[in-house]
What we know:
Radius of gyration of chain C: 24 Å
Largest sheet of chain C: 2 strands, antiparallel
Number of helices of chain A: 12
Distance between the termini of chain A: 33 Å
Largest interface: B-C, 40 and 41 residues
Strand content of chain C: under 5%
Oligomer: heterotrimer
Helix content of chain A: 25-40%
Strand order of the largest sheet of chain A: 6-7-8-3-9-10-12-11
Strand order of the largest sheet of chain C: 1-2
Distance between the termini of chain C: 11 Å
Number of strands of chain A: 12
Radius of gyration of chain A: 21 Å
Mean pLDDT of chain A: 83
Amino acid sequence: MTDTFLSVSDLGVRFRTEDGPVQAVDGLSFTLRRGRTLAIVGESGSGKSVTSLAVLGLHDPARTTLTGSVTLDGQELLGAGEATLRGLRGSRMAMVFQDALTALSPYYTVGEQIAESFRRHTGANRREAKARAVELLGRVGIPSPARRAEDYPHQFSGGMRQRAMIACALVCDPELLIADEPTTALDVTVQAQILDLLGDLQREFGTAIILITHDLGVVAGNAHDALVMYAGRCVEQGSVEEVLTAPQHPYTSGLMSSVPRLTGDVDVPLTPVRGNPPSLLGGLPPGCAFRPRCDHARDRCGEDLPQLTGAGGRHAACHFPLVAHENTPEDTVGPTDQLESTR
Amino acid sequence: MLSKRSARVLATLFVAGSLTVTAAGCSSNSGSAKNAGAGSGPGFGQQQEAVSIGTAAQSTGADPAIPGAKSGGTVTELQRADFSHLDPARVYSSGNQMADLLLTRQLTSYQWVNGKNTLVGDLATDTGRSSDGAKTWTYTLKDGLKYEDGSPITAQDVKYGIERTFQAELSGGPQYLQTWLTGTSDFAKVYPGPWGGKDLPAIETPDAKTIVFHLKSPHADFPFAAAMQSYSPVPKAKDTHAAFDQRPFSSGPYKVLSHDAGKSLVLVRNTYWDPNTDPTRHAYPDKWNFEFGGQNLDIDQRLIAAKGEDADAMTFRTQVTPDLAEQVMSDPSLKSRTVNSVNPFTEYFSINNKRVTDVKERQALLMAFPKEQVRKIFGGPLYGDFSTTFLSPQVNGYHKFDLFGAPNTGDPAAAKKLLASSGNPHPTIVYAYANTDQWQQAAVVISNALTAAGFTVVKHPISDQNYYDEMGAVDNQFDLYWAGWGPDWPSPTSVIAPIFDGRGIAPAGPNTMLFNDPAVNSEIDRISAEPNLDQQNTDWSKLEEKIMTEVPAIPFVYSRLVVMYGPGLGGVHLGMIGTVYPLDVYVK
Amino acid sequence: MLRFLIRRLLGAALILLVISAATFLLFFAVTPDPALLSCGKACTPETLTAIRHNLGVDSPVPVQYWHFLAGLVAGRDFGSGQHCPAPCLGYSFVNQQPVLQTLLNRLPATLSVAFGAGALVLTMGVGLGLIAALRRGKPIDKASMGIALVGASFQIYFFGIIARYLLVDQLGWLPRPDYTSPTSNPLQWAGGMILPWVTLAVVNAATYARFTRSTMLESLSEEYVRAVRAKGLSTKAVYLKHAFRGAMTPVLTMFGIDMGMFLGGALITETTFNIPGIGRLAVDSVAAQDLPMMMGTVLVASTAMVLASIAVDACYALIDPRVRAS
Lengths: 343, 588, 326
């Protein structure tokens, strides 16, 4: 607990929609220290992006109810005023979006967009802010940054754009960086470069990073801890190594088998998790939300909601965890291998 | 001798479904606000003269002052469209005459005193001296007549002004004098106008004050024709040809200060005009501001509100819209500043005498016709007074007669009897009308009434732009259609001769009934040649009654002018030409 | 940008040439003989021929059009001594004035109406739309959209006449709508313009309000707007600097079309309020069957439309760098 920077405990996010209420996140808890990366993994709709927006306070207040607690460096964020949050956003906590093409405004130059955040939080003048923008562009590896700062996003390549957006997020040296699928839109080579860049920056500045992804391949080698979400709840968490080498929840295991591998038999088809995630509309049926898609489900799974159990940061929410059976080493790709495959 | 243009204006306005009917005419008591009942003329007895011819004594000196009137002030006049012409040679329609009444003088003009109009000498010392059986007319100019630059008005200028009306470029004006002086309606062949340097020998000017007209045939009402604005003096040196239309050189009490076509016209005093030479113009206001472009409803509302400068505002011919008529007529303070008079226009439903040849059948049409119901569609009593004649009470020679005693609502039973005694007891009648809302409603009413009387009615709508041309075709295939007539001066000559002369039948001509009776034609010739005006009027009256026995048309209404003016004005009354007269207006 | 403008202006000239040819042929082919109108009673074939010659309508329509084009460059003289100096857009025989002179004379009134109303429409409409978008679902959103709906359901000739009747004729709160030259009396100019401006604004602003609201909501749902919020920028910056910039383009397109129409002469407004501009001139010239003047007003209207579309495109380029690039 000593240098916990971000603490989320029992976070609940509930939306009002035209079709009825949606409990998008339920009872989510995790902590994050400076210099560490937490990967939040899950399919789309599992609540991972909602969690990041809730942390930043970017949800639509008119139709969202937040419960629980989120503290940043000891400061409670839930219920904090918009002005407080605005002061934190972009300076102490920043966000990198999935698709830089849509997340950067097409109407302003890249330099301007990096600079405006800096000016907002430091009160720097236009010239200083511009110098800072150029500096940041250089740092994220954009060649001739002074010239490129004058360009518009559409004049950048996809990878460059993503770097520019990271520069945007880093301009005020944030202590918490939330990267929401930062590499999904990019090809594999660029993906690795971007992830490396994030790692380098973290080592340099001690940034705490939340890496949101649906891709366990990205998690390996790029995060210290992993948290797997399903239907708005955490189903498994632990260190990346633990989660990837010995997944306890059948869902995690299912995700693992849907990751393409370069080692082993290339002809073996991927086995994605069968079925679809449940609709969160109108509440879930009793029992385990994953039950309809689970090969191991038994009667009890339809009756009791499994709680997170475990110790030392290693938890899973399954009545019949996979520890003892079926999990042969050949099926699991080690973190080192995975790292190789993405580099 | 015909006023095709006025008729055309009338027809166009009508066809557009508008209540605005304007052109030439004479006056009754202004603001007499008498509600028009069936056939009730405003106080004219049998054969009373609407306009008399004044003496030389009446032609001298200033126009008798109107009690309570004073000089000064600015009058604002509001109307939808600009005057289409200011050049007197091109001025014909009543709307255009209004401006030239202020800007020009003529040999003769009408003097208005207490509701009575008299034709007197204007530039001339009298209304003209005729010789040679009304074929030669001689005028002598008064002393002290001046243009806007102080130069004298001469007999040569009067001649030049009339010569200009021959010029083909200056089209649009009346053609009486041109025709009478050359003896042909194709007068441009005889004399092409003065711009080529040619002289018209039929007008002599032995000296600067004397002018003699030699006509090819007798015209007893020459003094009336001489009063038309078109025959105004123009000095040759000041003839700017086409540009004259925008800014005529003034011989009248006012001159053009500025003219922004379609927008505004400002007239200020011609300081050289001497009121003591002019028995027909008071010219009380110092300035006239004409504003063009307002919608009729807006003009009415401005005049009702009469705020600020609008207290001194008026309109010459924008009729009170039917929407506001009720309000205006029921509010004494508004009604008191309304001109509401019968004007010289008559409207009738022409029967095609070429197609409906049986007089009994024509009489049955008249007997069955629902005048009252039709007038209601067009606004009721304010629209006009029911008529049984073609001459309006505002025209000399008018006398009230009703040969058939048909009720205004129509009498289908009587009509049926007439039909039964005719040669064609089950006739089919093609009724043609302009395809507008009001005329469509009227067509239903007319069709119902005629059907009830035993006619089979075929309704034939005509697009309103083409109404006049199609209805006016000499071989039209219709039996019944609306028409109207406005005389150019209040003489029966300018009514009976044009609309009933069978030899004048022409496309879009005034004889819309296609009426052609040789006996009537020769009688027209005889009366036209009558040099004695009083005798002439009496003879026209008799002829009108004789023509009516043949039922060439169904008289409908004598139309009314109903317009408002601001409370700051006095002397506002219906003028000689069917619109409000500007010459007696004063600012209180 | 300069090349863009030059290219577009050349294109515009070509379009106007085509429009002038089309309207010329249309007007002069389908309308009744203009000479007949001024021929009057007892119109002999000879007089008619003379008048036709004077009016310049005695040759075949294509030849007349050629004379029209030549007149643009060299000016024209007509049969009865009328001179029309170059560039001659024709000569109005009703007004006895070169068409261009009348058009230029009427232009200031139309410009006054167009620019004043345009500014008001934009501020009112966009302002209401912004407020509604920012307070989506709140009473103020519903109120402003309600106002907008009421405004949009008005017609100029209805609202204008009622407003005029109440505010001018009955209560006397506003001066009578009228055009005074702003150089001669700016106060009277503005006073006389209030009603036309407000009427045009009320009737048109509604559309802008609803349109701005919807494009603004669309823009607010863009990812980059969320990204801007994640930077901690103020609400004002988020809405006005970022979201609004994205919402501006479609609004501007609509505004360009409307301005083009206003500048070509707001027919109904000018007629309703008796403003002597191009629009009323067009109505009057149709009533008077003044063909050359009708042509002139059509050309002004098309020129305004074409220029407005060029202006809109230029604005696009200013707003959106992606347009500039292509």
